[in-house]
Design brief:
Layout: H1 10-16, H2 31-60, H3 65-75
Amino acid sequence: MATPQPDPLEPLVRQLGVPRRDLGFLDALNAAACAQLVADIERAKGLHAAALGEAMEGALNQLPRLLRLPVRKLFGL
């Protein structure tokens, strides 16, 4: 009895948080291309988070010191 092959798009489904049926257009990708796409998305999300962090720090530095801590707590930083 053959074991079922894992769906190469499953990591993309988890990464993007969308139903599998919405990623049908990616069926043409092989497993290596899917893995590369997941890695690229993770890298982009990391860069995006870093840029947002830097922007938030810059914005907080514009506030008076006494307001920075309450604003950090408000935004969960």
